[in-house]
């Protein structure tokens, strides 16, 4: 039987694929990365829409594994924009000479396990096939963009694009009539940037989201020196917090303090940079209905203060979910955009979009003409990128079949019936500040592969017992969370994707330290819950 082409194949050259390649080389394994795009960066390669940037503090987001790299790179802003992040990831690719093991413009369409040879065969678009002992998916949690299903979308004669498929060349909005469909995190970032020089902007909103100020600014030379001297402390803090951000829940409950103290605390959070207002709020804000209602009322009043037209302000205040129960977009003068005379907000729940026309689109009430339509309609999250590849495990069973009743995994990184396949950002891994999760997951997979090397093992598969225990833990973590009562990508709902209209426990909602503790116990126990052969 011929030897496989590689020891390991990695799908995707974003942050997780890049770091996994570095770790595989350290293990002495021959690896190849297949990447759909023409460059490294994953999320930061594809999402080049106007306004795209971090909402994690830059210095908490980059790789932490190399102290030399930390000193060599300087972030220019507290929350870096997409072009800078893409430059950073190319800098990393250059420093570690990663491109020699990456094959670009190579979309993986299928991956099939062969039990006889204990290898995976990966098929690329165009038909080329490559084999490896191990298959590692580095395809991201938010990497499968979705478009709505409006009649006539192909007929539009202007320019139209999804934010995740943004052109590489600059787009001018000066004097143009522009539509942005969607007001999630991507839509908010796009809208506030397009509005700066647009001829006329129409925002078509189905569901308003609770947004909070980002408070971004340049990093001063003094701050830069302090950051570089404090990296050990910064990353230790990220290891300790619930979601790997620099912020973590306040130990107090909402009603343990007086109303005046609550208001003062919330004012401080609202005027502080980053996600503190979401993940650094009172500890019961996301579990106690009354506490959440108080916080929601506070933010609603902020919106009313910032938007001059009371009718428009009310359109921008969510009524179907409380603050923080969906992902909170961070913004820079987003609400002030609606005070501009050349910006109009349309409620598509009241007047749904009925069709796209050659010159624009129609709602149930009226017709619009546009030069550019921007679809900020999000992603088929968590499992969408997996659904777009035909994974086949033991007995030819597809991953889609295995997950038909909802995704099941072992610690979010392995699936029973899919030996030697590892998911770096599979469902049920700790999310939050994603690169912190990426580094841990890559290291965990790499340690398992090193353990297999030392023990002379060729095959690793998640056991049913361990998977059942892990999924029970995932379910336990979700109980009592107000977010589980809300339709969002975090509960597996996407109106643009068939079969994703019912809420499920789509993600791990426990703390990152608790996640790592579980994974460390698995490793310390000699991977007893993983069948090694």
Automatic annotation (TrEMBL):
Highest taxon above the source species: Bacteria
Keywords for this protein: FAD, Flavoprotein, NADP, Oxidoreductase
InterPro entries (alphabetical): FAD-binding_Monooxygenases, FAD/NAD-bd_sf, Flavin_mOase-like
Alphabetized Pfam families for the sequence: FMO-like (PF00743)
Listed PANTHER family: DUAL-FUNCTIONAL MONOOXYGENASE_METHYLTRANSFERASE PSOF, L-ORNITHINE N(5)-MONOOXYGENASE-RELATED
Protein name: NAD(P)/FAD-dependent oxidoreductase
């Amino acid at each position: 039987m011929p030897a496989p082409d590689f020891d390991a194949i990695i799908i995707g050259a974003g942050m997780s694929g890049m770091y996994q390649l570095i770790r595989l080389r350290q293990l002495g394994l021959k690896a190849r990365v297949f990447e759909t795009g023409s460059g490294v960066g994953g999320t930061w390669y594809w999402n080049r829409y106007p306004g795209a940037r971090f909402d994690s503090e830059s210095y908490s987001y980059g790789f932490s594994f190399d102290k030399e790299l930390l000193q060599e790179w300087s972030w220019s802003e507290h929350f870096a924009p997409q072009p800078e992040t893409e430059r950073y990831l190319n800098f990393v690719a250059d420093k570690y000479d990663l491109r020699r093991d990456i094959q670009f413009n190579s979309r993986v369409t299928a991956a099939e396990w062969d039990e006889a040879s204990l290898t995976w065969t990966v098929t690329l678009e165009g038909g080329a096939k490559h084999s490896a002992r191990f298959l590692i998916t580095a395809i991201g949690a938010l990497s499968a963009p979705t478009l709505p299903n409006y009649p006539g979308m192909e007929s539009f004669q202007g320019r139209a694009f999804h934010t995740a498929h943004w052109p590489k060349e600059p787009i001018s909005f000066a004097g143009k009539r522009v539509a942005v469909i969607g007001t999630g995190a991507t839509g908010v970032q796009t809208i506030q940037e397009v509005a700066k020089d647009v001829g006329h902007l129409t925002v078509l909103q189905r569901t308003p989201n609770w947004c909070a100020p980002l408070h971004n600014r340049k990093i001063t030379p003094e701050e830069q020196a302090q950051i570089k001297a404090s990296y050990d402390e910064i990353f230790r803090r990220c290891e300790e917090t619930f979601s790997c951000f620099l912020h973590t829940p306040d130990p107090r409950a909402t009603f343990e303090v007086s109303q005046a103290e609550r208001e003062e605390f919330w004012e401080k959070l609202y005027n502080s940079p980053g996600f503190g207002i979401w993940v650094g709020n009172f500890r019961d804000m996301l579990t106690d209905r009354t506490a959440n209602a108080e916080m929601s009322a506070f933010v609603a009043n902020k919106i009313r203060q910032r938007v001059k037209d009371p009718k428009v302000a009310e359109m921008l205040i969510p009524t179907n979910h409380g603050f923080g129960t969906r992902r909170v977009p961070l913004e820079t003068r987003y609400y002030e955009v609606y005070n501009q005379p050349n910006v109009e907000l349309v409620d598509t729940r009241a007047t749904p979009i009925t069709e796209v026309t050659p010159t624009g689109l129609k709602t149930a009430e009226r017709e619009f003409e546009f030069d550019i339509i921007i679809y900020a309609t999000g992603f088929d999250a968590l499992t969408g990128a997996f659904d777009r590849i035909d994974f086949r495990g033991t007995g030819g069973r597809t991953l889609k079949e295995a997950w038909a009743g909802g995704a099941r995994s072992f610690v979010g990184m392995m699936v029973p019936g899919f030996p030697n396949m590892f998911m770096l950002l599979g469902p049920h891994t700790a999310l939050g500040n994603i690169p912190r999760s990426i580094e841990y997951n890559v290291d965990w997979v790499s340690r398992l592969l090193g353990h297999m090397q030392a023990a002379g093992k060729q095959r690793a598969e998640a056991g049913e017992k361990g998977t059942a225990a892990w999924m029970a833990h995932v379910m336990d973590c979700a109980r009592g969370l107000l977010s589980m009562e809300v339709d969002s990508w975090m509960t597996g709902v996407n109106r643009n994707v068939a079969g994703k209209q019912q809420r499920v426990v789509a993600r791990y909602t426990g703390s990152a330290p608790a996640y790592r503790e579980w994974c460390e116990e698995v490793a310390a126990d000699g991977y007893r819950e993983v069948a090694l052969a």
